[in-house]
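Question: what's this shape?

___
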Amino acid sequence: LAVTETDMTIFFRQLSHAGNEDTTGNPLAPFMQAYYKPEELTSEYRDAMGKWLRDYRQRLKNSTLDEEERREKMNRVNPKFVFRNYLAQQAIDQAEQGDYAMIEELMSVLSRPYDEQTGKERFCAPRPEWARNRPGCSMLSCSS
């Protein structure tokens, strides 16, 4: 995962759904949203990850947990929603204009980071490309 820019929050949340589904055509298909530049995934990377996922799925078959119990346990420790810098910056920008709605919405969503929250999908999306180099959106310094 360290070889390519990967949204770890999304990747591990999706991993909770990795079970016995047939992904022989593209074992990475369920994880593509987690990759910031999927077009840059090399064949070596795809092969290595495909092997790891096949091994992982094989290990799941030997588990005493059923699919639902495994997914539930994984999702209790892998949040769906995290405080993303670009969302914080958007909320700050709106608050500076006197609109505090996004701050309130973020606080509400982030108060239940492990729960599925219908209609809140934009808060668990990967960082958009426009935020890659915008100050406050990509990374914050210690003094931020």
Summary: The CA atoms of residues 86 and 137 lie 4 Å apart. The chain has a mean pLDDT of 88. Residues 43-61 form the longest helix (19 residues).
